[in-house]
Design goal:
This protein is α/β, with parallel strands linked by helices and about 160 residues long. The chain has one domain: Glutaredoxin (3-Layer(aba) Sandwich), CATH 3.40.30. Helix content is about 45%, strand content about 20%. It has six helices and six strands; from the N terminus they run αβαβαβαβαββα. A six-stranded mixed beta sheet has the order 1-4-3-2-5-6, with helices on both faces. It is globular.
Length: about 160
């Protein structure tokens, strides 16, 4: 009986780890982040597990998230994987890579309806990143793989924008 109870507890606790929540968001959340009138700098990275350059840049976003923890910088990794892959690919990927940044899933079927909300410069290719702070009047968009030095330079520029 004790072995069965122990097995059940281990099994249940293991499910909690495997079932890490990844909130689904709608396009209007992008508008909320872009128009939040606070001095928080939002770093919105659009990526997917199947995109090699996206995966390659994630450690740099994680480093940025750690470096600016407790400061007014919010890193949000927005998955553009297929909805059918969130549970079987995205969640295990996030767990395996031990991502600490906020990870969400863009739950919109037609990208053309929300891409321009991010930036009119965006063709829809990923990786793509928007760094924005309404109160600072700061907005930079990148449609390429970013490295830490470029990310940090952009954050420092935003922090120094009155």
């Amino acid at each position: 009986m004790k072995k069965l109870l122990l097995f059940t507890l281990l099994l249940v606790s293991g499910f909690g780890l495997a079932a890490q929540e990844i909130p689904y968001i709608k396009a209007d959340q992008i508008t909320v982040w872009k128009n939040t009138d606070s001095d928080t700098i939002y770093v919105l990275n659009f990526w997917a597990t199947w995109c090699a350059p996206c995966v390659a840049e994630l450690p740099d976003f994680e480093k940025l998230n750690t470096q600016y923890a407790g400061k007014k910088v919010k890193v949000v990794l927005i998955s553009n994987d297929f909805s059918r892959d969130v549970d079987k690919k995205v969640k295990p990927f996030v767990k395996r890579k031990k991502l600490k940044s906020t990870v969400v899933y863009m739950d919109e079927r037609t990208p053309n309806t929300w891409i321009d909300l991010v930036s009119t410069e965006w063709t829809g290719a990923i990786p793509a990143t928007l760094v924005v702070s309404k109160s600072r009047g700061f907005e930079r968009f990148f449609e390429k793989r970013l490295h830490y030095d470029e990310l940090e330079a952009t954050i420092l520029e935003a922090l120094n924008t009155p």
